[in-house]
Amino acid sequence: MILFIRNIFDNIKLGLNTLIVNPLRSFLASLGVMVGISIVILMGWVLEGLDNSVSKTFEIIGVDMLYVTKWDWTGNTNWKFLRSRKNITLDQTEMMKLMHNSAEYVIPNVNTWGKPVYYDGFKFDGFTVVGTSYQNAYTPAGETLEGRYFTQFEDEQAAQVVTIGYNIYKQLFPEGNATGKFIKIGKHKYEVIGVVKKRGTFIFDFIDNQIFIPLNSLSQNFGISRRSLDIGIKAGSKEKLDQVRTETIGLMRTIRDLKPNEKDDFSINETKAFEENIKKIRYTVWGVGIGLTLLSFIVGVIGIMNIMLVSVSERTKEIGLRKALGAKKGAIRFQFLVESSVLTLMGAGFSIIGCLGIINIALIIVKKYFPDFSDVATFFPPFLSPQLVIVASVVSVVVGILSGLIPAIKASSLDPVEALRSE
Amino acid sequence: MSNSVIDIKSIKKVYKMGQEEVHALREVSLNIQQNEYVALMGPSGSGKSTLMNILGCLDTPSSGNYFFRGKDVSKLKDNKLAEIRNREIGFVFQTFNLLARSSSLKNVELPLVYSGLKKKERDEKAKNKLTEVGLGDRLDHKPNELSGGQRQRVAIARALVTNPSIILADEPTGNLDSKTGVEIMKLFNDLWKNGNTIILVTHEEEIAQHAKRIIRLKDGLIETDEINSNPIIYN
Ligand SMILES: Nc1ncnc2c1ncn2[C@@H]1O[C@H](COP(=O)(O)OP(=O)(O)OP(=O)(O)O)[C@@H](O)[C@H]1O
Ligand SMILES: [Mg+2]
Questions:
Q1: Residue B194 lies in a domain
Q2: Deepest of A72, A191, A285, A333, by most Cβ within 10 A of its Cβ?
Q3: Per-residue pLDDT for A8 more than 90?
Q4: 10 Å Cβ neighbour count for A156?
Q5: The domain spanning residue B45 has which CATH number?
Q6: Confidence tier at A62 by pLDDT (50, 70, 90)
Q7: At CB < 8 Å, which residues of chain B contact A?
């Protein structure tokens, strides 16, 4: 073993020699492996980017938040069943707020769509007007870029004040300074008192289309009797989530008079629910990636194996000589395994460079043609993480060893006399 | 007996070629002592190379026993044989068999690589041996930058670098002109004087006359085994 390690550099040099003697042949033979490694790298890069965006998305929603809703955010797609559920009313929300012990805040939310917004003589569409309580300021939606959230007093008085999301701010006030200006929602006049920091990402852009007004004001001006409320519940910490969830479900069942044998007629949504979906995406990416990778590695292994078999037969005499001089079978096997690994490692090197190129070109294209998604680069970095580079190298060496195995065994079991006699 | 390097008893070597059996060695017994200088002669196909391969532990006999320095090596496994070749035997081939892309130094180092020596030690030993064979100034030359005689010297340095018990040379002058051949024979003469044991195969009478003992093979049998009463010796 010590002997092997001591000789590894000699063997690597030998391997490089073989490579250099016929670079085109080596390149062609490693093509399959290069494609395989590239898929591994790109797949890893996409998954890492996905993870980054997902954890950012979870931050947006709030990792310590639960949302009690009539509709289900994820998973349950049985629309008819969901529709048959009774609405969550304001009274129920108030009761929840009074009775909840473990939660930090219980915050009602009503989302309304399709309300036009007017400013400076222009009409704007596509925003969500959210009626909520002043405590929404303590959720991830509460961080302001300028101005402030409405106060408890304004909340109770149904004041005509509004804190706007980042996209509204950008569209209505491209020059900045929104605070103090007046906008109209429908036919009602509202004073802008604050702007929420940009929260959205390229996959969660719509979150910045929200306009927050006091729930009482929404109720007065637009009416909420036919709407189902969402109850946002802030646990205060991730650790408290389980306790808060249990209490929430219990309270909700009591409030909605459910019998012990009845199923919950509401959904509890939290970032955890998304994790399941994300897992599915991950598995899909993996599945497709692994399939393609395996396919190209099979092609790749055959390619490398071939060139190594050629190398063995071209160098039969050399192998005979090495054996005559005292090389044991292991040493010969090792030599050829190192050689095939050098070949695949070089392939990995090319793949890494190639993938860097692909990634950067892709990012440039996204930036240029999809400016809305320009923050992609903050989650999908224009470089490869060290883990990815290590994984690619390890995979390439494993593939190298796999494809070198048969040629190496063939070389090591050559008869020295026969081998020496060959020309 | 204690000084016997090679002691073979009734060895046979049979090659099977389909139905046919080729008796390359019919029954050969032979004892070679330390510091002997032996020439193996005989017509083509008489079994010289076959015998050399067995003596060099490159091959094993079909039957019979081979005691190398008292140890029976006729039934050893490949890796054990490789160890013996590495430590005890120095080969010199007719076609030199140097690694074409490696320097003289690298070529001479090769057996030491397989003995597991450190780079520094390898370098030193290889350098010494190359200097001994008169190539101290050709360390970094590749084989194609050397003459035939020089190549064979590199090969001899490679055979000597592990300080083997015996040097086996199969037609070492076969690819050289007669003048260069004589120079190589002078080198063998020096090695013998320094206490080395040498067996060389040749079909040239002139070359064989350098040895102190001449064994003639015919049809896989030893025909004659005589002391050379008047060997060529250089001073
Ligand atoms: N691998 C083999 N398979 C079959 N027959 C073989 C093999 N090796 C040698 N022989 C046969 O054994 C006999 C002896 O061969 P060997 O090579 O020992 O002769 P040699 O004396 O070295 O001849 P030369 O002077 O031509 O080198 C020959 O008849 C040869 O054909
Ligand atoms: Mg021969």
A1: yes
A2: A333
A3: no
A4: 12
A5: 3.40.50.300
A6: confident
A7: 53, 56, 58-59, 78-79, 82-83, 85-87, 91, 93, 97, 99, 101, 110-111, 113-116, 118-119, 158, 162
